[in-house]
């Protein structure tokens, strides 16, 4: 199963004056995991689509910071 939340470990310099972040997180959009757009996908209403930035619910992916995990994967 694919996950939309990815992590990586950046280079940490021995001369870095600040406490380094050992792991960073980023989000990948759901359309990367669809080979094609299936027919008859559920759609947002026109006003919801303007707020979400997409017409199709399957392509909606709100971005939340790594400290807001409880809010992830909610529709507008």
Strand order in the sheet with the most strands: 1-2
Helix content: under 10%
Mean pLDDT over all positions: 82
Number of strands: 2
Separation, N- and C-terminal Cα atoms: 25 Å
Classify the beta-strand content into a percent band.
5-15%
Number of helical regions? 1
Q: Could you state the oligomeric state of the chains shown?
A: single chain
The gross shape turns out to be elongated
Order of helices and strands: EEH
**Main pleated-sheet profile:** 2 strands, antiparallel
State the low-pLDDT regions, or none: none
Kindly provide the radius of gyration, computed on alpha-carbon positions and rounded to a whole number of angstroms.
17 Å
Q: Total domains, how many? A: 1
| Helix-strand makeup class | little secondary structure
Protein name: Spore coat associated protein CotJA
Pfam families: CotJA (PF11007)
Organism: Neobacillus mesonae
InterPro entries: Spore_coat_CotJA (IPR020256)
In short:
The protein is 9% helix and 11% strand. It has 76 residues and is largely without helices or strands.
Q: Notable features of this structure?
A:
76 residues, little secondary structure, two-stranded antiparallel ribbon, 1 helix, 9% helix, elongated, Spore_coat_CotJA
Please explain how this structure is put together.
- This is Spore coat associated protein CotJA.
- It holds the Pfam family CotJA.
- The chain has one helix and two strands, in the order ββα.
- With 76 residues, it is low in regular secondary structure.
- The protein has one domain (5-71).
- Strands 1-2 form a two-stranded antiparallel ribbon.
- The longest helix is centred in the middle third of the chain and has 7 residues, at 46-52.
């Amino acid at each position: 199963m694919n996950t939309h939340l990815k992590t990586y470990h950046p280079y940490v310099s021995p001369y870095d004056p600040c406490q380094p972040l050992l792991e960073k997180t980023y989000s990948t959009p759901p359309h990367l995991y669809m080979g094609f757009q299936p027919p008859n996908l559920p759609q947002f209403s026109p006003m919801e689509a303007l707020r979400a930035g997409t017409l199709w619910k399957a392509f909606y992916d709100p971005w939340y910071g790594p400290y807001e995990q409880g809010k992830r994967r909610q529709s507008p």
